[in-house]
Amino acid sequence: VAAISIARRSLLLRARGVLLMRASVLALFVLWSATQLDGYSWDYDEGVHVYIAWHAQQGYPLYAQTFLPYPPALIIALVAAFDLFGATVFVARLVAVLFAAVGLLGVMLAARHLAPTTLPSPRNEASARGESQPWAVVAELAAAALLVLTPSFYQWSRVLFWFLKIPGRRLRDFASLMAWERVSKIPQKTC
Fold this sequence. Notes:
This protein is mainly α. About 70% of the residues lie in helices and about 0% in strands. α1 runs parallel beside α6 and α2 crosses α3. The two termini are about 30 Å apart.
């Protein structure tokens, strides 16, 4: 019983460490990105979306008095942010950064899922049994670093576009696929 308790505590500490690492990476990304939101956008859509969100915040109904050719998820997020922090371009771009942070989290989780749990080593018995997953943490950090340092991610994660919600849908699809893969590996009882 004591060995089980120690093992559970060890798993909880590792899980907390991984959650703390993810939260730190996301917080650093959001804080660093928030310092890079000045300057004008080179694209027409950003101003249009901010203006549509501002109109919606003022009470004009979407799809009636306010033209919107897309689903309203981004505009709803913008209106909520405008209600909390004020209707500014900085706030709108910060919403874009938060959408990008969700995408970054998805990339980190995908890297963790795809990383090898162990590397074969005759000296590492715990790793051979799959008890430790240090490569998953390395994969998460490497994937996050590579994505953040990609010039197009740096450029487009700070601009407000309607297609920001698309990575969220892809993340949902990928998470469903990972969950299905995990469940399909569980041995099924047969009668």
